[in-house]
Predict the structure.
Amino acid sequence: MTLESENHEATFSVVKAPDWINVIALTPENNIVLVEQYRYGIEEPTLELPGGMVDPGEHPEATSIRELKEETGYAGSEVINLGKVSSNPALLSNYTHTYLIKNCEKVGDQELDGNEHIKVQVMPWADFLDLVRHGAVHHALVVAAVSKYLISSHYKE
């Protein structure tokens, strides 16, 4: 690839990936629904927001509703788009969309894919923020989603 602003050629590796979503799922009591799953890149489990891949032809909002239900068995009554971030623009072609889903309640069982092993955790929002603040929650896209929510007009302490 040759960039007009640079007078030389370079080779870049770019992963063409589908868009992803993250869901901030809040119960009526302002508890957050989270998932714990093993991540092979760092070889340890992480505590994260429910989320996943946008299927071809699927709108990210529909993905957020589907992934929340599949991974946790929860569903909510109000879905709010908090925006998107570049997942990792140095290497990845995709975006990660963040949705806030309010009034979440357990409505069924998890519907996991064969390679998913997910433990659901529900905790007060303030406790989750402490985990983010102290680095126990360190997934960059989760931290980005939290910041999207905190600066949104929908955030209430």
